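Intended use. Records like the one below are meant for learning the mapping from a protein sequence to its folded structure. Do not use them to infer anything beyond what is encoded.
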Amino acid sequence: MAVPEVVADAPPRPPLRWRVLLPQFIALLAVLALGGWLAHNATQNLAARHVASGFGFLDDSAGFAISEGVIPYDAGDTYARAFAAGIANTLRAALPAVLLVSVLGFAVGIAQLSRHALLRWSAIAYVDLVRNVPLLVQVLLWYFALTMLLPAPESPMQWSGLVFLSKGGLAVAVPQLDALLAAGLLALSLLLPWMTWRLLGRRAAAWPLAPVLLAALWLLQPGSWDRPVLGSFGVSGGATLSPEWLALVGALTLYAGAYGAEIVRAGLQAVPRGQWEAAHALGLTRAQTLRRVIVPQALRVIVPPFASLVMNTIKNSSLAVAIGYPDLVSVATTSLNQNGQAIECIAIIASVYLLLNLVIALAMGAINTAVQLKER
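Structure written out for the chain above:
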């Protein structure tokens, strides 16, 4: 009788988890080591040349002015406040551009699939033209058009005494609201659509009413209006948008809107043709088919690349430095030219844009999860 051969047990294989995490841990250590070496080398070189380092300069007086902004700032304020004003100006231009890009991209993307030949070819021509012109060129074109083709501030174009447009910018009349009244109007504008939704069961028709109701209540509130007034030296009063802001937001909107239109068009065409035919067989119109059938399915394809477009739009707002708009990059450039601490100023720029993009990535990730099809 043959004796079976004893085979030694093979050594246990390491868990798959460690095999995946170990290379990542080693790569992280290598990156941290490289960063530490670069920081140590930079510190030694700066000390050898007697150049100050660190972020202590943020408490010093900046000594330069900022032409516009939403945060009050004077030349005697600190560098920290100057950077805060620059960040606020970046958001002041980037966020409206993102909202306008969303609307324009969606409209032009649908227009590219329109049955109306003139509308379809106009949308296609816009996309092909704008995408092939560099963004910096478009920003400069917008700025030169606003500062050279518009009338002088002393003789602006005006509409009903409420809107003035000139080389000095766009001045519009705005209602004056105190904080309590503004909060009440905002709460009411959100409560009424919610009540409409609960009573009528029409969510799609209810929530878009919020901005409409807010605007209506704002315009009809009994408070006084701050109207722009034409004087001997131009327009004063009201809310004024500078030519630099208009040029930056306009260029970002048109440029990113063309890419957004292509993203929307691709997402709509990714939905199988049978979905269109099934909706038409049920008697739905083309508009109803888009709203109820095609767009909800296309969003799962549209949202991921649109997230990248939003992040690129925010980063592209740094081109404001080319036309003198005082954003974060402009403030940082002026600061490093004065104090010579280029590494710290550039680190602030990189950190702010990194944080903004991480926040956008988290928000778009949540939206992407919400629009995914729920399978049974």
